[in-house]
Amino acid sequence: MTSNRRKITPEHPVVVIGSGLAGMSAALRIAPHRHVLLVTKHALGDGSTAWAQGGIAVAMGPGDSVESHVHDTIGAGAGLTDGAAAAAVCGDAADVIDDLAVLGVAFDRDDRGLALAREGAHSLPRVVHAGGDATGRHVSQALAHRVRANDAITVREHVRVDDITVDDHGVTGVRLAGGEHVATRAVVLATGGSGHLFARTTNPLGATADGPALARRAGAALADMEMVQFHPTALAVGPSPLGLVSEAVRGAGGMLFDCQGEPVMAGVHPMGDLGPRDVVARAVFRTARDTGNDVVLSMAHLDPARVHARFPEVAALCAAHGIDLARDPVPVTPAAHYSMGGVLTDLRGRSTVPGLWAVGECASTGLHGANRLASNGLLEAAALGRRAADDVVAGGGDGAPGPRAEAVPVALGSADGAVVRAEVGRIMWAGCGLERDADGLARAADLLAALPAPADAGAAGLREVAQLVVTAAAAREESRGAHFRTDFPQPDPEQAGRTCWAGDHRHVIPADPAVAAAAASLDLTEAA
Ligand SMILES: Cc1cc2nc3c(=O)[nH]c(=O)nc-3n(C[C@H](O)[C@H](O)[C@H](O)COP(=O)(O)OP(=O)(O)OC[C@H]3O[C@@H](n4cnc5c(N)ncnc54)[C@H](O)[C@@H]3O)c2cc1C
Questions:
Q1: Phi-psi region at 178: left, alpha or beta (left = phi > 0; alpha = psi -120 to 50)
Q2: Considering only CA atoms, which residue is closest to atom 44 of ligand 1?
Q3: N or C: which end of the chain has fewer CB within 10 A?
């Protein structure tokens, strides 16, 4: 199929799907130029954005530089990061923070200006935050307020998009749950994450992989689908979604201990409790498995008043379960937290389908490689929201270079969607979680295939994406970043390329030579 030059016609609105940081940033930037229809499946501003605690990474402290931020991003990405994406997004960070401040986000300040926190695998304090650990809530509320006040943005809340319609030339519209079709030549997909592919997740209930499912059915390529970040410290109490104990808690001195009181990270990684997320998550997972007891996080050696002042949200979360964050051992478990994979896009947010942009967590620019650096998620959502908006306004209706497949209709049946979703979560946690192997992945693939077809498009999409994640995890016969295979426990330089999928066809995006060289100087091997 060819991607003829297409005109984005002014009589149709630009449709933005999702109202997290990515979607609202895009909508607000498009609105001075074009009418925007913002469709969001829960209330405006609901999504992972509102739950974010730690903050947004930006190189602005003494001795820091964009180059250092890029270096840390590439280091965390374990050889799969796209160097151009890292340079672009880290380079946008100061403008992103300025924009958000202008939109009304009151970032925390100290006597030197914006207060900067240190998080895992960052070489310097680099994370701006708001309301202590309530960054996401502040960002989401400020942007939602602006969106509601903007006459050029029509908001439709509690409406789910179930299909993106296409013809040979690209996007023709979106179909809403219930059947209504909205014609448009420009869709910005900003549907957030996929945490509910797994039985244990930190993500809100809406994080059900809708974006990748919609884009895949429309023929767009998806990339890095095997790369799922498991956060090491979800609160191991109550049902999923599990509360998050932010990495900033360890940045402030919190330490992980096993049931004997031994430090979990001693001898595991030179950065100890602030090592890369995947390394810490596997150490927590193995310690809990081997001892039969939860790992605990302790801040008891720190000043309780400061702990409560710096982490009011986490403290409240713990208090709801009778735990004093500053004094008690806090039981923690890994949980699915962030999808590095998603809709393959270029640095304008263009997918491989003309007229379809994807931004934020549902997209895969290559920034995160095999493992996201802490607080680069919000940054990317805002940076790509801006970039895609500028491209939409400039009339950039052509797709990104890359493979495109035939569009396929959703396969619906009569099974209860909630039951199918729960089964998908159980199968994925057991067979495609923190430690994977060929047998477990094959079993997961069989079990997913045997599930009855659900009656709703959301659950059907979740299962389709789960199947692709399992296929991608089976195809990568090495361990790298968040993807750990017990049967291939070391990285294989021959497999140091990103993989993308158009329909069921696998394509390899060759490794970025500069990143490969940088990654070669890192020790990516790990004791099992
Ligand atoms: C607990 C938690 C803490 C985090 N902390 C941090 C942090 O400190 N720093 C950081 O950088 N990152 C953090 N992250 C990750 C970060 O919050 C997300 O990656 C980011 O907010 C994603 O933004 P988004 O706009 O892409 O998606 P979201 O904010 O998740 O928004 C997605 C939107 O899409 C809507 N939607 C989904 N499907 C459909 C559909 N079919 N039709 C219509 N609407 C739909 C949803 O309702 C929602 O409005 C955290 C994540 C979690 C879960």
A1: left
A2: 40
A3: C
pLDDT digits (tens, 9 = 90+) for 301-343: 999 999 999 899 899 999 999 999 999 999 999 999 999 999 9
Could you give phi then psi for residue 201, rounded to 5 degrees?
A: -150, 155
Compute, in angstroms, the gap from residue 63 CA to the centroid of ligand 1.
31
- Nearest C-alpha to atom 3 of ligand 1 is from which residue? 52
Give the distance, in angstroms, between the CA of residue 173 and the centroid of all CA atoms in the same chain: 25
Atom of ligand 1 nearest to the CA of 162: 41
Contact 347, 369 (CB under 8 A): no
Give the model confidence (pLDDT) of 134-148 as tens digits.
999 999 999 999 999
Q: Is 210 in the pocket of ligand 1 (CB under 6 A)?
A: yes
Cβ neighbours of 258 (radius 10 Å): 18
Strand order in 363-364's β-sheet?
A: 363-364, 342-344, 222-223, 498-502, 505-509
| Percentages of the chain per state (helix, strand, coil), in multiples of 5 | 35, 20, 45
Atom 20, ligand 1: residue with shortest CA distance: 49
DSSP string, 228-278: EEEEEEEE-SSSSSPPB--HHHHHTT-EEE-TTS-BTTTTT-TTGGGS-HH
The one catalytic residue in 160, 200, 250, 277 is 277
Q: Which of 47, 38, 378, 353 is nearest to 192 (CA)?
A: 47
Please give the pLDDT value at position 198.
98
Cβ contacts of residue 218 below 8 Å, gap of 6+?
A: 163, 164, 165, 166, 171, 353, 356, 407
- Is the CB–ligand 1 distance for residue 41 below 6 Å? yes
6: confidence class by pLDDT, cuts 50, 70, 90:
low
Ligand 1 centroid to residue 211 C-alpha, Å: 12
| Ligand 1 in reach of 241 Cβ (< 6 A) | no
pLDDT surpasses 70 at 195: yes
CB 312 within 8 A of CB 361: no
Q: Which position has the token pair 């925007």?
A: 36
Quick one: DSSP state of residue 454? B
In the residue annotation, 436 being an active-site residue is answered as no
Give the distance (Å) from ligand 1 centre to CA of residue 361. 7
**Residue whose pair of structure tokens reads 């979106």 in the numeric block:** 174
- For the CA of 54, the closest atom of ligand 1 is 8
In testing the pocket of ligand 1, which one of 21, 24, 48 has its CB within 8 Å of the most ligand atoms?
48
Report residue 203 as tokens: 């993500």
